[in-house]
Design brief:
7-stranded mixed beta sheet; FAD/NAD(P)-binding domain; 33% helix; binds flavin-adenine dinucleotide
Length: 467
């Protein structure tokens, strides 16, 4: 099967691998996409449990802009991948919130709303905030040429004086895309600030499956070949040149060019290099609970809540299994227009994400691990209830929890590092002439970021010089 020489082999069918594969196939390349699992999506996949369909990661598709908006990441991406915007069936967030003790900043998909919130709660800071906003607009955030790390925290401190406002602005950006402890790179800050505050959140109707179906259809229509349950066991390198990959089955696949979406360290290990992780590697725990009841009775109107239970954010691996001091809560049913209050119970979902400690979970024997999962699920839910207030629902239909070990097992990311290595390889070069990185460790994160990473790496290394 699939004998011969491929133009390109892409390792990993997460968002970035799919983005790269489509772009290369669209340019007429003979592309083979290799995925270790039986389904695609990686960190943003989906699964069925107890007859309920779950998204693995999707809280929000960032970078929301209305159809027809020119020159923004979402619409550029649709153009590059030849996917009609309407086919995404995006439903906008209703309202999200950054919640600290005694104070909240609400935001929607209109940036002016956030400005008004800052004017109301931090009147002395508003002029300085607007100067920060103007400075962010000038950051060259798509530049691929390597630049040293520049602390976003230090940059923001040059504009804002109120430490609480600084922490509040940073919290969602850290949670949605920082591989650094308590900070992130200034260019990454600018990308996320625009993606979250200036553009906003939406969700495809039907969740991540809608997006994945569109991506797969496009890839196959352009002649791309996907092989699932085809994990790459090793990469055969002769000095700087990669010749082939060997699958877990022992089969070898040959190509002229290779893209890897599985991470820097993970790729080097397949090339037979002994590498140590660039520390720290941040990971998360995510709980999902499906309830039966009436969401309106709970009084939970927010789509996403970024909460922090003190005035200072500790975005770092916690000492305990997971960190209850901060997190993200998502209620996917709060996307789209509010429905007429229903008299009938319906199902709705509560998802919470916390920072977690990989090593703490890793050392547990299996029974203790099972018990800790159970305890953590309850503790995380109690934490969400105390943040959301209202009348928490009681009728649990189903529940699930991903630990850092689940993330490592299902995605191959060492230590379950969702945002990969703190060091990024912005031009995708990792020491080989025909093997390039895309995805998490290239540096663009999240669903839209990973897709853009695949597209831009394909354009940069695969299609440069093509008519
Ligand atoms: C719990 C959680 C919630 C999230 N929520 C959001 C959100 O709401 N919004 C958002 O924008 N982003 C979110 N993210 C982040 C987002 O999912 C990622 O940034 C993005 O999907 C990364 O895509 P990727 O292609 O770079 O990597 P991955 O998704 O990790 O894809 C890599 C693929 O490679 C495969 N693979 C690994 N090793 C091999 C091998 N040896 N051979 C073959 N295949 C291999 C893996 O199975 C995987 O399919 C979330 C992540 C998590 C974990």
């Amino acid at each position: 099967m699939n004998e011969g020489l491929w133009d390109v082999i892409v390792i990993g069918a997460g968002m970035s691998g799919l983005g790269a594969g489509i772009r290369l196939a669209l340019a007429g390349k003979k592309v083979l996409l290799l995925e270790q699992h039986h389904s695609v999506g990686g960190l943003n996949g989906f699964y069925t449990k107890n007859k309920i369909l779950y998204d693995v990661g999707l809280h929000a598709l960032t970078n929301f802009v209305p159809a027809g908006t020119v020159g923004k990441p979402l619409t550029k991406l649709c153009r590059q991948l030849r996917i009609p915007y309407e086919a995404l069936q995006l439903q906008e967030q209703r309202q999200s919130r950054i919640q600290f003790p005694g104070i909240s900043l609400c935001f929607r998909n209109q940036f002016e709303g956030l400005v008004e919130e800052i004017r109301k709660h931090f009147p002395k800071e508003i002029d300085r905030f607007l100067k920060l906003h103007a400075a962010i607009a000038t950051v060259a955030d798509t530049d691929l040429i390597g630049m040293p790390f520049c602390s976003a925290r230090e940059q923001v401190q040059q504009f804002l004086r109120d430490p609480l406002l600084i922490e509040m602005i940073l919290l969602p950006l850290l949670y949605y895309g920082s591989a650094q402890v308590n900070d992130l790179d200034w260019r990454q800050f600018a990308i996320l600030y625009k993606a979250i505050y200036q553009e906003g959140f939406a969700r495809p109707k039907g969740g991540v499956r809608t997006l994945l179906r569109l991506l797969l259809e496009r890839f196959r229509t352009e002649g791309g070949v996907l092989r699932t349950q085809a994990g790459v066991r090793s990469i055969d390198c002769r000095d700087r040149q990669v010749v082939s990959v060997e699958l877990a089955s022992g089969e070898k696949c040959y190509a002229k060019q290779f893209f890897s979406s599985i991470g820097w360290m993970e790729t080097q290990m397949l090339c037979g290099k002994k590498v140590l992780p660039i520390l720290p590697r941040l990971t998360f725990m995510e709980t999902i609970t499906t309830y039966e009841g009436r969401l309106q009775d709970c009084g939970w109107n927010d789509t996403i809540v970024f909460f922090n239970r003190s005035d200072r954010v500790f975005y770092q691996p916690p000492e305990s299994f997971f960190d209850e001091r901060s997190g993200v809560i998502c209620i996917p049913e709060n996307y789209g227009m509010p429905k007429e209050p229903s008299s009938q119970p319906v199902r709705f979902t509560l998802r919470t994400t916390h920072l977690a400690n990989f090593s703490a979970w890793k050392v547990l024997p299996s029974e203790a691990y099972r018990q800790q999962r159970h305890k953590s699920l309850f503790a995380s839910r109690a934490c969400a209830f105390s943040v959301l207030q209202g009348n928490p629902p009681e009728c649990v239909v189903d529940e699930d929890l991903f630990t850092p070990l689940t993330i490592e097992r299902f995605t191959g990311h060492v230590q379950g590092a969702v945002y990969g290595s703190p060091q990024k390889f912005r031009d995708g070069r990792i020491g080989y002439d025909n093997l390039f990185l895309c995805g998490t460790d290239q540096g663009f994160l999240g669903i839209i970021g990973a897709l853009l990473s695949g597209v831009s790496m394909a354009n940069y290394h695969g299609l440069r010089g093509m008519p």
